[in-house]
Amino acid sequence: MSEAHMFVAIPPRPAPRRIRGTAGWLRKNLFSDWPNSIATILLLMLFAWYVPQFVNWAVISAVARPDVEACRAAAHAGACWGVVAEKYRIILFGRYPYAQQWRPLVAVLLLLSLVGLSTLPRMWRWTLLPLWLLGMTVFVALMGGGIAGLVPVPTSLWGGLPLTVLLSVGGMTLAFPLAILVAMGRRSALPVVRTLCTLYVELIRGVPLISVLFMASFMLPLFLPQGVKLDVLIRVLVGIGLFTAAYMAEIVRGGLQAVPRGQAEAARALGLGYWKTHALVLLPQALQAVLPSLVNSFIGTFKDCSLVTIVSLYELTGALSLALGGDVVWRPFFLEGYFFVAFIYWIFCFGMSRYSVRLEHRLARGLRRN
Amino acid sequence: MSIIEFDKVNKWFGQHHVLRDISMQVEAGEQVVICGPSGSGKSTLIRLVNRLESHEEGQLTVDGIVIDDNAKSIEAVRRKVGMVFQQFNLFPHLSVLENLTLAPVWVNGIAQKEAEAQAMQQLERVHIAEQAHKYPLQLSGGQQQRVAIARALCLAPRILLFDEPTSALDPEMIKEVLDVIAELATQGITILCVTHEMGFARSVADRVIFMDEGQIVEQAAPEAFFDNPQSPRLKEFLSKIL
Q: Which of A78, A338, A370, B214 could in theory staple to B20 by disulfide, Cβ–Cβ 3.0 to 4.6 A?
């Protein structure tokens, strides 16, 4: 027998490295190769440098009491949360009369519970509409007063969180149906409708929100007939609604474009007309496809509402400048105030984002193959 | 009077003349198979019947209704004509049952409960009742197409149009769909079916129509059509596909 035909076992391979357990997880996720390891170490050093500093500033050396002397003594080495404790009523409710501030509190809680209720799928039926009408009526009555023994409060004094929530919820409620109509209009077979909708979108998208608000607030009254007065809040609300709708319309149109042509044909062949085809077949699929973009747009609108400050409506951000701008004593601690306001914004936006994830899962039900 | 009457019907897509002087009749209860090379206008022909496409010249009458731009007559004709598509076109966001009850509830105004009972009957008819609560994408292609047939049947149509119902199916699923169509054919519904399944045409059709370049070139009962084709173009077509 020659050498070549002799059986020679290959040397055993080393056992595979442990990939389970803490050590295995660390190796796989943080130290899998050189660049990864370097990035991990750099980031850890960064954390080690900043986190203790931040914790020291925000918690350990922070002053929580509304005590200016103590805040000054901390000399910005520790956060002065006292400014929030001192000013939170103005930040949350703006110029609303101090003694009456339970009213905006109840009103905003009412509005938020309505929003919360509307997010539950089992509430999605026609009863939601009268519920909203009732809720909005109570909201306006509470805020505006003038009935049931409540002192009248003009809308120019409404402010803070209730105003932010009202403007964004109201703006989105106006914008959403309008956006759907405009999106359908841009795909219409009728040239007049198509042109008008395109004009609308291009016109509104071409200008910044600030100028829309400015026009709604200062120019619109000039065009209204004599004696007709439209409250500034309503004008601004309509402005925000029109502005948001133009962006949203393009998102919805994108969604409609993505629905295969056969869907509309099948609906028409079954005898469904234009509106029913859209309501029952095309829009459910289109909106589901663009849900992430829609939520993006909603979050954007929520934050864009801070721009109404320029027409002297003091929503959350505006109320903060109101609270600190005129106060020499507390003004140095504006950073903490912004932290507070940013935190409120973050809670709302994060909530919306989480909800959209849940909604996506629910809506994707029929589109999963299993 | 025939249930479908084409009289010198012409259609253009832009400059392209897709249907040329089509004249033909289909009798109530007749099963007609239309075949021909791709681009011959056969799909367009049947899509005229329920006005998914419109013709520019000539007259088309379906069950006594003259087909034109009148919205009322389009609505009326769509109640009488069901359609099954190559790509099934089921609504993916609705369950099988909801796909079937959509038109009865929203077009005919039937109560949901009653529509569901009728839908279940139609699902039994295509042997797929046990899938009623699934979603379309959870079914195989053959099952989806049978659901699509049941959906078309839910409006109790007098005429069923099939636009290449098996062309998008895997080979092993073609038979289950053709068997269902063959069953329907024995039940008195008028059927217009565009297909390349010549075995099906031979066994089920009363008449086979051959189209080429927007014209009806030849039509005959299946035996004569397959065994004794007259025109050179049909002979050539048959030699390619049989």
A: B214
